[in-house]
């Protein structure tokens, strides 16, 4: 993997929101990402399964990092995200896999799927991402790995 990919992983790990979740990002190739995540009762809704915000976060992050793995100069932003929740999730390890679909200049499209510990798909998402004006090298966690 490239230094850019390692720097994106460091950026994910440094984001304050990710300190609230037990998750790890790996950029597994150009346009590919994988997030492993633990579901615990603190993330449940009133009926005892993971709240939909957990699905959204994991699916959006996986698609986002798949897209940003192809953009080495700027941070990308989610501009739209469609979500399909197919099964309830209870405690255990989930994996979100992200994959770039199209676009590399200004707008990128990526998709993601969420897999439970039994290997069943429990959610799916598709996002549109756009280059921002935020230079990746201006972000301390990213720059620490790149050396910028």
TrEMBL record:
Domain named Thioesterase: which ranges?
A: 48-121
Q: What class of enzyme is it?
A: hydrolase
| Entry superkingdom | Bacteria
Keywords, alphabetical: Hydrolase
Q: What EC number(s) does the entry state?
A: 3.1.2.-
One Gene Ontology MF term: hydrolase activity
Q: Which NCBIfam families match?
A: unchar_dom_1 (TIGR00369)
For this entry, the protein name equals PaaI family thioesterase
